[in-house]
Structure formats: C-alpha cells, structure tokens
Design brief:
Length: about 700
C-alpha cells in the first residue's frame, strides 16, 4: 500500500475555505428570503455558483494537500464534472431553504439529495486521479463519509432555513453556524480521503495531460476567495441597500401617515376636521340604511369665546379650545366622532338608540361647557349653544345635515344662548336670511355703505349744544336704511364689530375735527363701544391712531361703555379704562342703573360721566319709583364728581324735572333727532339764530 501524508497548511486553508463558503451560503439564504421577483432567481443562481465553487474548492485544496510517493494529476473533464455536481447540489440546497416552510420529511429528502451530491462531487473528484489500478475504499469509512455528508447537509439546511430572516445578532450566529458547517464538510472530505487505499505500484493516469504542478493550490485558492468575496460583498452591499430602502420606506410611511393626519385632523386640537367628519357622516348614513337606527349631528358653538380670545390673546384662546376638545371628548364613546370644523365651532356625531336620547346628550354637553375652565392660572367662563339635526329626518346628505344643525344652533343662540335646539324646517328660511345678511355685512365696509348720524346733546341749564352722540346707520342696497339693532348682534357674533367699530371711531373723529375747526372747540363727540370692542387688545391703539390721524384733542372724544360691560371683569376694565383716561379721553358709563353695579368698583373706575338709561326717563311723569331712582343716580354721580347725562328726553316735563335734579346735559327726540352731519349742523345753526333773537 502506498502511504500518503498531508500538508497541514493546505488542510487548514481547506477548513477556512469551508467555513467561508458556509458563511456565504448562510448569508445568501437571507438575500434569497427577502428578495422579490427576478431577484430571487439571480440570488439563487449566483449563490449556487459561489457556494458550489467554495465547497468544491475546499475539496480540491484538500486533495492537493494529500501527497503520495508518486506524481499526481487531475483529469480536467472529470474535475470539471465534480465542480458542476457541487454547483448543482448547492443550488438545490438554496432553492430548498428559500421555500416558505421546511417540514421534517422535506428536510430529510433534501439532506439525502444534497448529501448524495456532495459525496458524488467528492468521489468524482477522487476519480479524476485516474489511478491504475483503481482506488480501493474501506467500506466502513466510505459509509461513514456518506452518513457525514447526509448529516452535515441536514444540519446545514436546517441552520440555513432558521437563520435566513434578519434578527438581532444574526451575523454573529451565522458566523458560529458557519464554523460548525465548515467542520462538518471538512470532516466528510477527510473521512472520504481516509477511506481511500492506494495499492503498491499504483500509477496516476492524469499526470500526463491533467491538472498538476506547483502553484495550482494557490490559483484555486485565489480564484475561490475571489468568487466567495464577490458574492459575500455583493450580498452585504445589497443588504445595506435593502436596509436603507426599508428605512426610506418606513420614513415615507410615517410621512404619509403624518400627511394623512394633517389632512384629516385639526392641527390645534387633534380632533377630526371637516373632511374626516363628512366621511364619518356618510358612513353613519350608510350604516343606518343597512342596519336601521338613527344618529344625531350636534353643532356646538361657544358663547363668549371671542371676548376671551380678544382680551387675553390668541394663545390663551387656543389653549381654551384644546381644553374644550378634551372635556367634550372624555364624555364620548369610541364609536362617536367629535370634530372641530373651524374657529370655536365643534360638531358631534353620535349614534342613538332612540331620537329622544339626543336631548339628554345635548344637555350634558351644554353643562360640561358651562363649567369653569382653568387655563394658564385664569378661571374662564363660557357657554355653548347646540343645534341638533337627526338622521333620518333632517337631511339627505352630510352637507344638508350640517347646514340644518347650524341653523338649529343659531336658533339656540337667538333663544338666549347656553342651551340647545332641535332643527325645525322653519329655521331654514331664517338661517338663509342670516347668512345673506352676514354676506352683505362683510361687503358693507368695502362698499362704503355705513354712515353716521348725530344726535345733539344740550347743556341742561342754558340749553346750548355741547356735542353729539355718533349713531351708526347701514344703507343696505335692498333693505334701505337699517338701524344697529338689525345687524350689531350679528356683527358681534362674527367678530366684524371690531372692523366696524374702528370705522365708526375714525369717522366720528374726522367729523369732530371739522366742527373743531369751525370753532366748536368745547364740544365732545360720543362713540359707543360694544362689549367685544372693549375686550379687544387693540382698542387703546385704535383710539390713539384715530385721534392722531385727525389731529383731535383727546378730551374732544367721549367713549361710552355700558355698565354691564364695565363690571363684567372689573379688574380688566380698570386697566383699559385707566389707559384711555391717561390719554385724556372722556369715559362715560352708559345705561347706568340697569346692571348690577358695585359701588366699590364704580368709585375706582376712572370715568367722567354717568348716563341715565332712557328706561328710567320715559316714565318719570307717571312712576314715582323711576323718579326716585333717577334722583339717586344724580346724587350718586354728583357725590363722585361725575357729569350726569340723561337720554331719551321726549317731553318738556321730563326736561324740567331732570334740569331741576341737577343733570349736566340732556339728549332726546324733544331736543333733536339723529341726523346726518350736514342736516345736524343746519339745525344747530337754526337754533343759534333763534337764541340770538
């Protein structure tokens, strides 16, 4: 028998090649598992080639490590056949582990096929020596090599299948598994080599025209390492590209989710917006048609929100809206929808068992809003007006239901606010009228449809004119001249009163400047302030600008605010009034005696004038109580050092009574009606002429 020996350097290299080939195979299974479409075939083919070359290279280097006393060579066609067998075996293995499942029977069958292929590759490679006489194989070692091949294949397939998905530390685990698989493959090879027996006098027939010579092992090693490295690097780079693509896809998904959130939700409160609400209403209508039942649409408008927003600023208003959303949402079920559709308007969509259930729910919503809100260390008090539309019954579309709920809400506001109202067909015409009036009101400023009429004020003692009160009029294009009671409430509800009030202030100062130039330097022009104007943060600046624009002394302007407005938030009122007083503007408390006064606050207010409400003046001649109240107001004003003005004087008896009480000035129809500036001055001039005669 010829006794062979091994180059331990090449044996170690063959083990390293086996481990590298195993790691490459495991990594490629991960690529195949995550690939889609044609990429699966690309990675399977490329992986079969790389893994096949690696396994075959380990085998061939192992054979080159074996030395006999005779020269050895390797038949080229048979060697190529062994390489082909290795590639096909590895291709089958990669295909098998790329399947969705790997049941035990399939694993066993695959291990037999792959083990047979690797064994065929090994023994075909041995046959490439073309030994004469032929190689004898020890039956025990030969059978052991086959069992090792099948067992190693089973282990390799199972490990590859389990490690094909990305998971934490998968690279480290694959490295450990590759070492085990490499040792198993090498074990099969060298067991097969140990089974080979070469008789004395054997001759290698492949030495004449086969592969042989020094440096062949290096060439095979370099070629193999190049193939495996290219495959492994390609796999790693593709994995990184895939990870970046996955990150990009995740980012795009998050971006799309955020865009959807922005498109369908209110940015301030996070509640559904009008678009999402419309979709929910349509879904609810479809469900009612399919399953029966009913639902209510409740249009919720906050009463008193604009004064808070104007007095404390938009930041405080935004916080209040968030708190309202939170409070309303806490009372809802998961299937209900609360949406904010703009400004201080919320809409509640709620499924009902019976239509009458809406009554209790609406009352609860009104009660929730009526409770005080604690915002930035301020206790804020608002209320809600709720309009209710039912489906089926109050509309055939989402838009119609919302419009009808809105009409019912305005009806609730008209009934005194802080309440709710169910929709009735009669409300539609009123709602349309209000909507048209609002559109006309928005255009009135732009088209110069407003004007001021002036009602004179006279000194009670000598009956000489001391000024006038500016009263707003609207020359409506179709309805003619409208008095403030027809449109001021609507202007306040929509906030238009701020712009209208600024126009009134500016126009009154302009007109007073004309009179001032004419020599009426002791006159005062009086302008009424609405509650919303008084709470507006820009009031003081607007007054200062109007006075400066028309070069009018501050004491020529009197601002009238109602007693109720002044006392609603006395501390805040004190600050605003003090700023106006410091500017030199006269301040008058209008409709005095009709509200709930606090004498302590009244004493502190920097007012110059009290104006007795016309309601007390009207019945002076017939009601002793009214006479007593007027007497008390005059006495109080005199004690506080305030001028006393009485309005609504319509008879000579009233005039004489008020004069004797000590009123400083009077106004009313007896003395003069509100007139445009030109006619107003004509009457003044006529009176002065008569007085001179």
């Amino acid at each position: 028998m010829l006794i062979g020996n091994y180059s331990f350097t090449l044996v170690f290299i063959s083990l390293c090649v086996a481990i590298l080939a195993s790691y490459t195979a495991l990594d490629l299974t991960g690529r195949i598992a995550t690939a889609r479409g044609r990429a699966v075939h690309f990675w399977t083919a490329g992986g079969a080639l790389a893994m096949g070359v690696g396994v075959w290279s380990m085998h061939f280097i192992g054979m080159l490590a074996f030395k006999l006393p005779i020269d050895l060579g390797y038949d080229i066609p048979i060697t190529a056949l062994s390489l082909l067998i290795a590639v096909l075996s590895c291709g089958f293995a990669l295909w098998l582990v790329s399947q969705p499942k790997l049941p035990i029977l399939q694993l066993v069958f695959g291990a037999l096929i792959m083990g047979s292929g690797i064994s065929a590759m090994h023994y075909t490679g041995m046959a490439a020596l073309r030994m004469t006489p032929g190689i004898d194989y020890d039956p025990t070692l030969f059978a052991s090599s086959l069992l090792i091949a099948v067992g190693a294949s089973a282990a390799a397939l199972w490990i590859a299948f389990r490690l094909r998905q990305h998971s934490p530390y998968v690279g480290v685990i694959r490295g450990g598994a590759a070492v085990i698989m490499g040792i198993a493959i090498v074990g099969m090879h060298y067991t097969g080599m140990a089974a080979a027996q070469f008789p004395e006098g054997s001759f290698c027939g492949a030495t004449l025209n086969g592969l042989r010579g020094n440096g062949l092992d290096g060439l095979v090693l370099i070629t193999t390492l190049a193939v495996l490295s290219i495959a492994l690097l390609t796999s790693i780079l593709d994995a990184r590209l895939e990870a970046r693509t996955a990150d990009l896809a995740k980012s795009l998904t998050l971006a799309n989710r955020e865009l959807t959130q922005l498109a369908l939700h209110d940015t301030l409160t996070g509640l559904p917006n009008r678009m999402l609400l419309d979709d929910r209403i349509n879904q609810a209508m479809k469900k009612v048609e399919e399953q029966g039942g009913c639902f209510a649409l409740m249009f919720i408008d906050l009463d008193g929100f604009k004064p808070v927003n104007d007095a404390f600023g938009h930041h405080m208003g935004d916080q209040l809206l968030r708190e309202v959303g939170v409070r309303l949402r806490e009372d809802l079920r998961s299937q209900d929808t609360l949406a904010r559709i703009g400004g201080d308007e919320f809409v509640l969509l709620v499924r009902l068992t019976e239509p009458n259930d809406a009554l209790g729910l609406a009352a609860r919503q009104v009660g929730l809003i009526a409770q005080s809100f604690r915002v930035a260390e301020h206790d804020l008090q608002i209320s809600a007006s709720v309009g209710i539309a039912l489906y089926p019954g109050n509309g055939q579309s989402a838009q119609e239901l919302l419009m009808n709920a809105d009409a019912a809400m305005y009806h609730a506001k008209g009934g005194g606010k802080n309440g709710y109202s169910f929709f009735d067909v009669s409300m539609n015409s009123n709602a349309r009228k209000q909507l048209q009036l609002l559109q006309d009101l928005r255009a009135a400023l732009e088209h110069n449809q407003f004007s001021l009429h002036y009602q004179p004020k006279f000194d009670a003692a000598n009956r000489r004119p001391v000024g006038a009160e500016a009263l707003l009029r609207w020359q409506h294009p179709t309805q003619g001249m409208l008095l403030p009671d027809k449109f001021i409430d609507l202007a306040e509800k929509t906030g238009l009163i701020i712009a209208i009030g600024d126009w009134v202030l500016n126009e009154a100062c302009r007109q007073m400047r004309e009179w001032y130039v004419l020599g009426y330097t002791d006159w005062r022009i009086a302008v009424n302030l609405s509650a919303l104007q008084f709470c507006h943060a820009g009031l003081v600046q607007s007054v200062a600008k109007a006075l400066a624009t028309h070069h009018l002394p501050a004491n020529s302007l009197t601002l009238e605010i109602t007693e109720t407005t002044a006392m609603s938030d006395a501390d805040a009122s004190m600050t605003v009034l003090q700023e106006l007083s410091d500017m030199g503007v006269d301040l008058s408390i209008d409709d005095f005696g009709t509200g709930y006064s606090s004498l302590m606050y009244l004493k502190r207010l920097p007012a110059n004038e009290l104006k007795i409400d016309r309601g007390f003046v009207r019945d002076l001649e017939h009601d002793s109580d009214d006479a007593a109240i007027v007497s008390a107001i005059v006495a109080l004003g005199q004690a506080l050092g305030l001028r006393i003005v009485a309005e609504g004087v319509e008879t000579g008896v009233q005039q004489d009574f008020l004069t004797k009480l000590g009123c400083d000035s009077l106004q009313g129809y007896l003395l003069g009606h509100p007139l445009p500036a030109e006619r107003f001055m004509q009457n003044i001039a006529r009176g002065e002429t008569l007085a001179a005669v």
